Amino acid sequence: MAWIFVGLGNPGYEYEGTRHNTGRMTLEYFAKASKLSDWKEDMKAKALVSRGLLGKTLVALILPNTFMNKSGVAVAKFVKSAKAAERMAVVYDDLDLPLGVMKISYNRGSGGHKGVESIMKAVKTKKFTRVRVGVSPSTASGAIRKPVGDKVVVNYILTKFKPHELEQLKTVFKKVSRALQVIATEGLPRAMNQFN
Fold this sequence. Notes:
Elements lengths: L2 E5 L14 H12 L6 E3 L4 E8 L2 E8 L6 H5 L6 H4 L2 E11 L3 E5 L7 H10 L5 E8 L13 H8 L5 H24 L1 H8 L1
Parallel strand pairs: 1-4, 1-5, 5-7
Antiparallel strand pairs: 2-3, 3-4, 6-7
Helix pairs in contact: 1-6, 6-7
């Protein structure tokens, strides 16, 4: 059975390389590393799509070309039922995790993430996999320094990664790519055991 992987972000040049586009950047890396098809625009779904095989499992990668809070519009064209959502993994930026950390979870709330909220509404379930990629700054000792206040948070997530942060992200991209590979070929429990 096929898996659908969704990378959240905002479309458009001005959002490229921003923290809020981490999910999108991760999936772009994964598509290239896994030698999946080139991205093709699906006008009806308002998304970019890449497909291919991981082992014997068919995967479809979706990058919604909608703004973050409308991500569900694009996803709903590919995930037609709550049952189908069980074979979907959504990759996105998470302020509750420090930069350099990733975590896999299943059947959880949105944690206030507008893109995840939009998908939950569109597919009418929260029973899907989340791959959360940390974007918060941390202290030298590794303690998280999460931005506070709506305006501060919005400004922070819409700023571009600094070069040294992008280096750190590359390591996370590799880890997430391995995790997605395991999810598709060996199942979610195995991936959670291995990567959490």
